[in-house]
Amino acid sequence: MSAPTSEARTVITFGTFDVFHVGHLRVIERAAALGDRLVVGVSADELNIRKKGREPVFSEGERMAIVAALKPVHAVFLEESLELKREYILEHGAHVLVMGDDWEGRFDEFRDICDVVYLPRTPAISTTALIEKISATG
Ligand code: CTP
């Protein structure tokens, strides 16, 4: 991990990153390439239960440990509420917010404080599809 400098361009992104897969890796690599430091908000278990109606397969602590161990990631934090994006962006001094294009347009309100970039999702893979595939073959 490198310390932030005043010149460092910080990128922030958010996600559950449950049952970590190559689509997650690709979005993290592409987000990191947009700046000097990548900070990742990993969504809390409670938030996922509210958002997706199920508990993640891996706990928030496990998901944070996996994401934090990735070479392009400088820091992780727990995203406890979807309503706190603005606070998280400011708190981490982010210059760029990166989201998958499944969220296209939904975060444009933050263009007053940072750049907002939507990246195309990696086709044909998702945590939900993986869970369904594994359950069907079990
Ligand atoms: N992502 C991606 N390509 C995929 C799947 C996810 O680029 N094929 C990105 C999402 O756009 C998001 C981040 O990875 O920026 C975390 O997404 P997350 O919701 O945790 O993963 P999903 O696989 O989409 O999970 P689910 O099926 O539970 O919605």
UniProtKB/TrEMBL annotation:
Pfam families the record matches: CTP_transf_like
NCBIfam families for this protein: cyt_tran_rel
Positions of transmembrane segments: none
The protein's name: Glycerol-3-phosphate cytidylyltransferase
UniProt keyword list: Nucleotidyltransferase, Transferase
PANTHER family: FAD SYNTHASE (PTHR43793)
Annotated EC: 2.7.7.39
Domain spans labelled Cytidyltransferase-like: 12-132
Organism: Nocardioides dokdonensis FR1436
UniProt-listed Gene3D superfamilies: HUPs (3.40.50.620)
Molecular functions (GO terms): glycerol-3-phosphate cytidylyltransferase activity
InterPro entries: Archaeal_FAD_synthase, Cyt_trans-like, Rossmann-like_a/b/a_fold
